[in-house]
Amino acid sequence: MGYRVEYRTSHIETPLFRQKYQDQEKFMAYCRECPRYNTRWSCPPLSFDVAEFLEPYTSVNLLCAKIDLDDETIRAADTEEKIKTVGWEIVSAVKRAADEKLRKLEARIPESLSLSSGGCILCENCTREEGKPCRQPDKMRYSLDAFGFDLSAITKDIFHIEILWCKGSLPEYFTLIHALLAKEPVPEVLFEAVGLHGEDGFPSERKV
Ligand code: SF4
């Protein structure tokens, strides 16, 4: 086992969430510096008005995936290349799994919609780079970042976790923040029903 995932959930009313954590001007400036800017349909610039998009959803149901890496995995990633590759493999595997489970949860909750952590990774090459429509619009979910939300503050204030980064080694843990927009708070038991609660015995036999 190279890592384990612990899921935590919380909910907050959308107007309060926007008031406390949204700053589009500030975070769009960061997004514009990202090499993925304008290369994924899930990412900025978005083609719609963000306030109008969020308006129908009164509750933001947050999902935090804390990914604890084991010592051996951290130790074995002893070059910049390995840190990058292993970090990405772990984070993208957990993101894919959480996205899929959240889409299952959407199916149980009328008029709900999930948002993901980071840009869409469903296809190897996104059609946005060719100016063509999304290949999988039924599965693609926008990133929370794309709405200008402050993920560090959300992670710290709501889940009491400091975000860690790769600094010469893999960090002790990664954190991913996803959300389910809905008309009302989603009970924890529904997250649990799709495997998004508590510890996930996430299979990872990966060796660096
Ligand atoms: S599903 Fe494919 S085409 Fe659509 S945003 Fe994701 S990577 Fe791009």
What would the principal axes of the Cα set say about the shape? globular
Class computed from helices, strands and strand pairing:
alpha+beta
Q: What percent of the residues sit in helical stretches (DSSP H or I)?
A: 25-40%
Heteromolecules bound:
iron/sulfur cluster
Most strands sheet = 5 strands, antiparallel
Q: What value does the average pLDDT take?
A: 93
**SS strand fraction:** 15-25%
Distance between the termini: 12 Å
**Low-confidence parts:** 201-208
The count of strands amounts to 5
What are the SSEs and their pairings?
Layout: E1 3-13, H1 14-21, H2 24-33, H3 50-54, E2 59-69, H4 71-76, H5 80-108, E3 113-115, H6 151-159, E4 173-182, H7 188-193, E5 198-200
The site of iron/sulfur cluster has 13 residues, from loops.
Structure overview:
It is globular and about 45 Å long. 35% of the residues lie in helices and 18% in strands. The chain is an alpha+beta fold and 208 residues long. It has a 5-stranded antiparallel beta sheet with strand order 3-4-2-1-5, with helices on both faces. It has one domain (3-200). The structure holds iron/sulfur cluster.
Task: Throw out a few tags for this protein.
208 residues, alpha+beta, 5-stranded antiparallel sheet, 5 strands, 35% helix, 18% strand
Short description:
The chain has 208 residues and is of the alpha+beta class. It contains seven helices and five strands.
